[in-house]
């Protein structure tokens, strides 16, 4: 696989061991995601720079998409996205044919899809919830994910070979309804990076940087709420959705205009299915707010 040339800022992040931690965090934060540990970012950068594909694995709302966007920003490369579902087909990946007019004559043109665009332009391809796709769909891009970096477009018969700079980032939520286990042939094409929830001081910083909430005391209480929710999920008392960092950030935003408990109700509680879980989260909110 072709290695990706690293931008100067990323080279400094990897090579300059004397660089201050605060400077590194500022660089990371500029991409919108502050990972739970710097090793996660370093490992992802090293894998992508060597031409490897990476698979971000973790609970919903842990920041996998933001992680991918940050990597795209650090490498200074745009990112085409594929959102997987049971309806994903070859056209969703490669593109489709459509009628067009040239000098008043009707012609058939091919509109390239995200895989084709990313390969030809040398950008990143982000495949979200890759285990939501039907097992028979993804083998189409096996050649894209291995050393060949090549695919035959089934609609044009064109052989597409990725240009320098092309890289693949995928994300997976395991154990959800509608997901299927990745087959070994597909999984073996990725370097797997486990993305846990952001907690503690890093979550405080994320709330301060990405939401309208400025009240330090409220921010600290939301961080405590997040920790309690994560603990409850690990104990099997709540579904993973309850501890979504994305939902927590929504609650923080709403709490700048609404009472915190009502913000939590709209952003977290009402998304849960079981009354028992709703009551549990409401009780946590009552103790903190």
From TrEMBL:
Read off the Pfam families from this record. Answer: AAA_5 (PF07728)
Which CDD domains is this protein grouped with? AAA (cd00009)
Record organism: Oceanobacillus jeddahense
Fetch the PANTHER family from UniProt: MAGNESIUM-CHELATASE SUBUNIT CHLD, MOXR FAMILY PROTEIN
Organism's domain of life? Bacteria
Its recorded name reads MoxR family ATPase
What Gene3D superfamilies does the entry give?
Answer: P-loop containing nucleotide triphosphate hydrolases (3.40.50.300)
Domain AAA+ ATPase residues, every copy? 50-196
Question: Which family does the record assign?
Answer: Belongs to the CbbQ/NirQ/NorQ/GpvN family.
């Amino acid at each position: 696989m072709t290695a990706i040339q690293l931008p100067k800022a990323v080279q400094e992040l990897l090579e300059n061991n004397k660089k201050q931690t605060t400077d590194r965090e500022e660089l990371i934060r500029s991409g919108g995601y502050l990972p739970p540990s710097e090793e996660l970012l370093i490992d992802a950068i090293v894998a992508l720079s060597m031409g490897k594909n990476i698979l971000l694995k973790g609970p919903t709302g842990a920041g996998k998409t933001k992680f991918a966007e940050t990597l795209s920003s650090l490498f200074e490369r745009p990112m085409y996205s594929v959102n997987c579902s049971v309806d994903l087909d070859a056209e969703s990946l490669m593109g489709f044919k459509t009628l067009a007019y040239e000098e008043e004559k009707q012609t058939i043109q091919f509109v390239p899809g995200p895989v084709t665009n990313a390969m030809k332009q040398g950008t990143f391809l982000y495949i979200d919830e890759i285990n939501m796709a039907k097992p028979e769909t993804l083998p189409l891009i096996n050649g894209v994910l291995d050393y060949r970096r090549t695919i035959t477009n089934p609609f044009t018969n064109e052989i597409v070979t990725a240009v320098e700079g092309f890289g693949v980032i995928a994300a997976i939520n395991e154990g959800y309804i509608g997901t299927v286990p990745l087959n070994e042939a597909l999984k073996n094409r990725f370097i797997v990076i486990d993305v846990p929830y952001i907690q503690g001081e890093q979550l405080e910083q994320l709330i301060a940087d990405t939401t309208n909430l400025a009240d330090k005391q409220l921010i600290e209480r939301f961080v405590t709420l997040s920790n309690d929710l994560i603990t409850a999920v690990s104990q099997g008392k709540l579904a993973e959705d309850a501890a979504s960092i994305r939902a927590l950030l929504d609650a923080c935003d709403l709490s700048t205009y609404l009472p915190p408990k009502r913000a939590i109700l709209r952003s977290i509680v009402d998304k849960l299915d079981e009354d028992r879980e709703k009551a549990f989260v409401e009780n946590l909110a009552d103790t903190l707010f």
